[in-house]
Structures are given as C-alpha cells and as structure tokens.
Amino acid sequence: MHPKSKLLCLLLAGVTATGLFQGARAQTAEANENENPALKIYRASPTKINDLVHTKLDVRFDYAKRYLNGKAWITLRPHFYATDSLLLDAKGMDIKEVAVVKAGKNTPLKYDYDGWQLNIHRTNSINPPNHTSFILIIPPSPMS
C-alpha cells in the first residue's frame, strides 16, 4: 500500500473514531439532563423465599359483625434455599393454632404473632424440591 494511502486511512479512522466517541458522550450527557430523578431510585422486589403451591379455605362469614371465621391450609415449597420458618402477613387476625399437616395428622408448631405478621418456626428445614402443608386455625370471635 502506498504511504499516502496508509496516512489517509489512518486519518479517516481517527476522525471516525473521534466523531463516534464524542457523539456518544454528548448523548449520555443529554440523556442524564432529561432523566426523571425518581427513576434513579432503586426499587428492589421483595426476596422470594417460598412458592405458594396450593391454598384451601374453610370459612364462614358473619356480615353483621364483619368477621371471617375459619381455617386455611397453605401448601408451600421453598423457592431456592432450604428454610425452617415462614413469615405471613396476617394483619388483625386471631390465631388459635398453627400446625403442620403430615399423613393426615396435625403437629402444632411454635409461632410468633404481633398483630401484623405471623412468623412460624419449624424444628427442621424444608429443602426446595419438597413441599409442606400448614394449617392456620382462626377461631370465631369472642363476641359471636
């Protein structure tokens, strides 16, 4: 290749690369100026600990007193890691008993309830391919 051709190719390559680099920089600066500041806030989704497999409800309604009385059976599977506890939103419920159902028998479990969240504690952990069934017994209100 002729030396003048080499020089011309290098010059064109340099101009092209410089033009692309400056254009990208200008677009980035312009995009940042027009961006909404609320979009810069990181909003993580809640960590997924369990997968809900099945729910069964046995409920009775007292419309006059605005109560729901009954039982809930919840079948769960750990999402990825083994787990030995379960945290449920249970705002304003009266919890009578929490048990694990195995072979048709209910084994009571320890739990903590603060009026907002129900934290159920198991003695052993459950691995991801397996699932377990819990029963929550919500008694009738003392006023009924």
Short description:
22% of the residues lie in helices and 44% in strands.
Would you give an account of this structure?
This protein has one helix and eight strands, in the order H-E-E-E-E-E-E-E-E. The protein is an alpha+beta fold and about 140 residues long. The N and C termini lie far apart (about 100 Å). About 20% of the residues lie in helices and about 45% in strands. The model is unreliable at about 140-144 (pLDDT under 50). The strands form two sheets. The chain has a five-stranded antiparallel β-sheet, with no helix packed on it. The chain has a three-stranded antiparallel β-sheet with strand order 3-7-6, with no helix packed on it.
